Sequence to fold (440 residues):
Amino acid sequence: MSEAPADRSEATPAALAALSDPTTGADLFGAPAGVEAAKQIADAATGNRVRSLGERIVELEALLHDQWDLLIGIIDSLEDGVFAKDLEGRYTLVNQADALGFNRSPERIIGLTDHSLFQVSEANRLREIDRRIIETGESQTYELNGITAGGEPSIYFVFKFPRHDRGGMISGVMGVARNITDLRKTEEELARYRDHLDELVEERAKEIETSNRLALRSNRLASLGSLADGLSHEIRGPIASIIAKAEEIQAREGVIGKGSEVQHCLSSILRDARKCDSIVEGISRFAGSKGETPVTCDLVPVVERTRRKLMTEAGKLNGSIHLELDRDVPHLRIVPDEIEQALTCVVRNALQSRFEGARVVIRTASCDEGVRITVRDNGPGISDLDNRHMFDPFYSSRHKVGSIGLGLSLAHGIVRSHGGTVDVEGRLGEGTVVTIVLPK
Fold:
């Protein structure tokens, strides 16, 4: 298209002359020459306006391109992914951060749909989200799993919202995707720390509970020890005198008559007096060490002596005691008589777990702490209540059969005085295992 005259000065001379010469006898709107001149002037003005409008359009296009490049530059500089889709789900805008999540350049994503970038199930999910946004005009948030350029799994938090045209109609969707992989890792690590802390707190609470229970038991044992000193001096003397006198009278069969009622009464007195003496002797052990010096010795002979001492009692109960001994266990620094007394209490308790037919197995083995001794029986097991009070003095589930409830308490006190531990495990109907650990 050729250029039009820029202004009136560029109109033809004939036209200007026709307008300015009064001898033509024509006015501007009537004479043929005047009309032609006016037309040329109008054409010149119109061409000028067209050229000015074209130049303005070029300027605006250049400005628009500059603004668009600036906008794209800003979007590409963002750490979050930014994208836009049309109504058919085709990508129309993708910044560098979003393209990085696909390990592609933005140009290779423009025009594609999610079905070209994701697995079918995931693409269907994303398309359904887009559909809801387009239909309702409401934004949506969700998490999206991806792969980094290095092949590592990543997690994105996506905020997606409707895109509107100039008429206010929804023309697609836009979204912002933020990589929250490090945040999730931090949350998982914090959760692990929290779980570990909960475990530590629970473990510490159990330790405190155990310590408090042991402290309470130690206080009780200390009180019993103080009481035992008085009992030994004030009670055992009179008991010993009663036993001696009753035995002396009982020996005079010629005076009281063998098998007489008096003889039966004396036997009852002797039995009860000896029982009282045994109780006082057991309580007195809670007073602590009797001053005996520990010696380094082999534990195996101590276990064997314990078995021999209780074999007669086991026979009366139609029971048995079996040994499974590791003869290579390290020697320990102990008071042999006290450890033998502790084992006697534990094994006797196991033999009495059944009215008859108890089978007791004593096993020794080396362990990190020193030597482990286990005493296992085939009794009825123990209840939770019995387990909680197992080492309490005078607590027994067999009071009806004559148990006074000092055996395990005594064993516990002796073992602890040697720096060891006593644990009891058992369930109803499954027998009981008592484990003694003595330190090196």
Residues 133 and 432 are 67 Å apart (CA to CA).
